[in-house]
Amino acid sequence: MVVKTEYNIDWVLPKLRNRRFFWNFASCITLAAVGIFSKIFIKLFNKTRVFNLASFDKALERPQHIPLITVSNHDSCFDDPGIWGALGWKRLIMSNKMRWALAANDICFTNSFCAHFFMLGQCVPTIRGAGVYQEAVKFGTELLSKGKWLHIFPEGRVNMSKEYIRLKWGVGQMIYKSPIMPIIVPICHVGMETVLPNEPPYYLRTGRKVTFNFGEPIDLKEFVLKLKESKATDEEARKAITDKIEEELYKLKKDTILLHNKLNS
Hints:
Elements: H1 12-17, H2 21-44, E1 47-51, H3 53-60, E2 68-72, H4 79-82, H5 89-93, E3 100-104, H6 105-108, H7 112-120, E4 123-126, H8 135-145, E5 149-152, H9 170-177, E6 183-190, H10 192-195, E7 209-214, H11 221-229, H12 234-263
Parallel strand pairs: 1-7, 2-5, 2-6, 3-4, 3-5
Antiparallel strand pairs: 6-7
């Protein structure tokens, strides 16, 4: 019997930490190309409505040293990059300011070609079930310390059944450990699983109705400060922060579903 082993990703994070000029150039090309394709496909070949993008644009215009975390529901494997098709052309072309994202190693980093492609797309291999002290979470905190934009699907997997999933604590851990308090923006979308279904045949569909809703920033500055002043343990802090984000994300999800159903009724 042949036992299939996972592709070794030990080399990935060291390479991401030590990017060189040509790597950065190739990354910019990759991000821009994927972003432009996503915008054309989502906006021109599907029926897309976008809400509150102006508020998110303000968050993207933050001072250079202030980090940004976006969190969203995860209904399809096309969520990222599909969500970013809602952004303006300028945002997509300015790929040096585009998001970093945590991505499942057993989905996106299964061989050398996939690993290089997703690395160029600023994806960080994350081992599901490895906990909040894994290297991907530490690298995410490093990115925040440099004022980068980090996107997370805190459900931890594609939610094919649309059931309630408790958010994973990694997002709370990174916020708590970030030396600079990040801006936290929830994003919700409805209909992405109709663009790229979760059941075979797996190919992109056209003419589907999709709704994107960018939430207002979640202000946790005082909340996190109180946790630190009270000397909360890391476990207490990351759970409390994640619970706050979960509350806001699911509230936004409820509103977005109502919007989507109303517009498409």
